[in-house]
Design a protein that fits this description.
This protein is α/β, with parallel strands linked by helices. It contains seven helices and eleven strands. It has helices at about 10-25, 35-45, 105-110, 125-135, 145-155, 185-200, 205-210; strands spanning about 5, 10, 50-55, 65-70, 75-80, 100, 120-125, 140-145, 165-170, 175-180, 220-225. The radius of gyration is 19 Å and the shape is globular.
Length: about 230
């Protein structure tokens, strides 16, 4: 969605925002900051914007919003060769070892499903480490955003077919741009109109394909999203 490469900020959300700002005639400067610092800054500093941000009821009054720009999908991935892993209900997860990111929403959700950290979950601080553990067979599944999985496979030089989604862990929410709450209506409207125009013109979809490859939504897999119970 957004990353730094060769000293330059890039990624789907970064490129899309640049195209929106150019179309709306709004000057833009993008800067990479630690998440907590950026989150606080945008709430207090005029003419600032935070991305990519999941729009939640808790965050709703803290920002103004432009979007959505992408769905948010976290899958439980297995190795393609692990045909023995067939999930139909969340209770089956207690028989498996799952790699998660430390202090992530996925870690908390799996804890609530009865998988404590250290036994049911093998938590680490990076998606790359989790992918390596899956490849080596140290875990049965890993929890990862679809955007992140595509990126990690690409960076590791591994084929997309090496992994398969075994279940949708969380399909709730969408990614948006979160603007300072004092942002004028005119700025919000111009950016939203620019986004809508770029979506209609197919530019957003072409950017998704650039960073996600040929995207396909898996069907027929279990859905463990919180709203599904």
């Amino acid at each position: 969605m957004n990353f730094q490469q060769g000293g330059q900020l890039t990624g789907y959300a970064s490129e899309l925002l640049a195209a929106m700002a150019a179309r709306a005639g709004i000057p833009l400067h993008q800067q990479l900051l630690p998440w907590a610092r950026a989150y606080t800054l945008v709430q207090n500093a005029p003419d600032t914007l935070l991305f990519s941000t999941v729009r939640t009821s808790e965050r709703e009054p803290l920002f103004r919003w432009v979007g959505p720009i992408s769905p948010r999908r976290i899958y439980l991935y297995r190795l393609e060769k692990r045909h023995d892993i067939r999930l139909s209900h969340s209770g089956q997860l207690r028989q498996l070892r799952i790699g998660t990111l430390f202090a992530s929403a996925s870690q908390l959700q799996l804890q609530q499903l009865g998988l404590p950290v250290g036994t049911g979950q093998d938590s680490t601080h990076s998606d790359a480490a989790n992918l390596a553990k899956l490849k080596l067979g140290r875990v049965d599944l890993i929890a990862m955003l679809d955007w992140a999985m595509h990126w990690q496979l690409q960076q590791a030089g591994l084929p997309e077919r090496m992994v398969r989604p075994a279940a949708l862990l969380n399909g709730q929410g969408q990614y948006w741009y979160a603007l300072n709450p004092q942002t004028p209506d005119d700025t919000v409207n111009r950016l939203q109109t620019a986004l809508d125009d770029l979506v209609r013109a197919g530019h957003a979809q072409r950017l998704r394909q650039k960073y996600m490859g040929r995207e396909s939504i898996p069907t027929g897999i279990a859905d463990f999203s919180p709203s599904k119970g």
